[in-house]
Amino acid sequence: MRRALITGITGQDGSYLAELLLEKGYEVHGLVRRSSSFNRGRIDPLWFAPGGDRLHLHYGDMTDGVSLVNLVHSVRPDEVYNLAAQSHVKVSFEMPEYTASADAVGTIRLLEAIRTAGLTDCRFYQASTSEMFGATPPPQDERTTFHPRSPYGAAKLFAHWTTVNYREAYGLYAVSGILFNHESPRRGETFVTRKVTRGVAHIKAGLTDRLVLGNLDAVRDWGYAKEYVEGMWRMLQQDSPDDYVLATGVGTTVRDFVRMSFECVGLDWEQYVDHDSRYERPTEVDALIGDASKAERELGWRAETKVEGLAQLMVEADLAATAQG
Ligand SMILES: NC(=O)c1ccc[n+]([C@@H]2O[C@H](COP(=O)([O-])OP(=O)(O)OC[C@H]3O[C@@H](n4cnc5c(N)ncnc54)[C@H](OP(=O)(O)O)[C@@H]3O)[C@@H](O)[C@H]2O)c1
């Protein structure tokens, strides 16, 4: 039985990936952080799903190298998916040092744990991001110059190059998946898409009549997270390791995503949305639109869900959640 270790298993992507790997018959180990409040809502249903007895959780932290060494040495995984991160761009401006420790140095801690455990056949996936392209105009692919515009983007770029270096220096099967934005009903509530779809549901239910947002002009390439974790898995099943962009190839402004989401419930967004510059970042990323043709050619992966469908499924999930209270 193949054994996978997922850091960030409690997050959006970690929960979908754990589901996928359990379905594929893997033994799945997840790194979880100790928290004074409940932080496992996304993976709780997995205990009762088929294969739930193959799920194992372990306490640890990307900023605590000893916990990572102990975990990797005891689990001895065949595949490691490094999804743990302080993943919020705006927060990274407020906590740059922590973001660098968790996202950049944390990746080195994990790679060193794999190397020192002598796991020469272990396959490693690094959750890289389109934020590494930052100021470089679209379309962006694997050959595009990086120019990050946030501590988050810079930390992820360090982790990206570290992953490439461990592949070249030690022959580790290490890949960097450069993923453009991907969303779902499980997206954290402070990320713009989810903030919008949850706001729409609350407005429709009469709980509020305002939605306050930052930069409406930013262009992003939004896909469906459930499809993107399949791409992560495929990256680790190739004959040789390489880096891949996953994206839909379609750019949409935040304004248009807002409009689509309000249209799902028959409302005019302009009646409800306010702008507040406090939600903007010191350096904005204007446009991210990915070219995933290499992933389509070599992995047979393609984003199926278009942005309108994504807005629809997220709004519907938030309407249902709001109705349940
Ligand atoms: N979603 C996207 O559009 C996107 C695009 C490109 C790249 N990425 C990257 O892909 C990965 C997964 O994204 P996501 O959307 O699933 O993010 P997410 O929902 O924010 O999940 C982040 C996960 O990392 C964990 N974590 C944070 N800091 C940690 C630390 N110091 N030690 C251990 N665990 C820690 C979180 O644990 P808690 O639950 O305890 O907070 C959570 O499980 C992230 O690395 C993100 O940067 C995401």
Automatic annotation (TrEMBL):
Source taxon at top rank: Bacteria
Pfam families in UniProt: GDP_Man_Dehyd (PF16363)
Catalyzed reactions per annotation: GDP-alpha-D-mannose = GDP-4-dehydro-alpha-D-rhamnose + H2O
Entry-linked Gene3D superfamilies: NAD(P)-binding Rossmann-like Domain, UDP-galactose 4-epimerase, domain 1
Domain NAD(P)-binding: start-end pairs: 5-314
Keyword Lipoprotein among record annotations: no
MF terms (GO), sorted A to Z: GDP-mannose 4,6-dehydratase activity
Enzyme class: lyase
Record function comment: Catalyzes the conversion of GDP-D-mannose to GDP-4-dehydro-6-deoxy-D-mannose.
Protein name, UniProt field: GDP-mannose 4,6-dehydratase
Species of the source: Nocardioides marmoribigeumensis
